[in-house]
Inverse folding.
């Protein structure tokens, strides 16, 4: 399964988002945002491997602000994921 990064502007929002996803049964890990994945400067990300649409819905429902959602391609570049 492909690893997906959900970008956040702050560590606090990333931690809040990860806790929400974990409580909902979605394995989530807070990390530094991968370099090159988001030029807008989001510094933290939550990584997940499945249930991306559900994760996006949960974050939106709880009004937890997040940025871009990306996955890494074989070429090493990042591609934006749509929920």
């Amino acid at each position: 399964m492909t690893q997906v990064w959900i970008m956040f502007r702050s560590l606090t929002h990333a931690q809040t988002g990860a806790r929400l996803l974990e409580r909902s049964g979605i394995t989530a890990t807070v990390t530094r945002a991968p370099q090159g994945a988001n030029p807008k400067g989001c510094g933290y990300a939550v990584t997940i491997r499945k249930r991306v649409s559900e994760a996006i819905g949960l974050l939106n429902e709880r009004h937890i602000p997040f940025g871009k959602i990306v996955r890494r391609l074989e070429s090493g570049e990042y591609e934006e994921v749509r929920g």
